[in-house]
């Protein structure tokens, strides 16, 4: 695995709804200061990744927590690389009818080429490590610009990142790899109910290839990890559902011998030995089995020889003229409004 000279430890995400933000106008605060709302819609759901023989499969399943949340969308970053942004992805200023940012659409262009002061990857993979940092720092720079307009108290548990980026690729002679890049934040109260916000340097954690002796199994990332409030229950992973003999997965595995072999290989630790075509067939069926009713599903792949391709492309989005969509009263908020 690539070595990290500096890594900030960020725990797996606790429950957080990052779907909207109420912030004051950027002026010196006063008791009578009026606050305009900045809406930050969440890319919410699950990202599942299988590294099979000759292919990396990346599927996402939406968690439709409110009307304006987005499905996590795999984004092509090159013929052998893709990324998925989870968390605060869609930034809107309804008062001016302006979309401030749509980070998943901007992702292919969010790169910082110069060396930064943050975590640096080791030299074992050379140019690929520098490219990884360039993307991570590009997202960091963009988030840093956006949070300058957040002056309300962000209502998240301590240590909770505001966003995260999942990257999957074939890195030259190094082979398939999967990284999670998390973006924490911190706030300081400059005056009563008036906060300054900054995004912390990203933390880089490599999930694939697994450490020596560890199983080669399906990877899963969920955002938010709980969907019923900070005390809600966590989503059960696909691997755990298999261990619990979930009837839907058992039915898929029993329907065809090759699907059964693929299910056992992927979920029991030998996914890298499963033929790509069999892995793809099981992967699609498994995502259907775990998706909530009406949730959008997206599947992309990176072929070791063929590169990026869609298996189940993202749905076309409906553009709402003049941003007329209004957040429902009482919807969960990234920022706690001032008292």
What would your notes on this structure say?
The termini are far apart. Helices cover 19% and strands 32% of the residues. It has helices at residues 103-106, 127-146, 238-243, 247-255, 257-268, 276-290, and strands at 21-24, 35-43, 45-52, 55-62, 75-78, 81-93, 98-102, 153-154, 163-171, 175-183, 185-191, 194-199, 203-208, 219-223, 297-303, 307-312, 335-336. It contains six helices and 17 strands. The longest helix is centred in the middle third of the chain and has 20 residues, at 127-146. Helix 4 packs across helix 5 (257-268) and helix 4 (247-255) runs antiparallel to helix 6 (276-290). It has a domain at 21-235 and 293-314: 4-Layer Sandwich (Glutamine Phosphoribosylpyrophosphate, subunit 1, domain 1), CATH 3.60.20. The chain is α+β, with helices and mostly antiparallel strands and 339 residues long.
Features:
32% strand, single chain, eight-stranded antiparallel sheet, alpha+beta, disordered N terminus, Glutamine Phosphoribosylpyrophosphate, subunit 1, domain 1, 19% helix
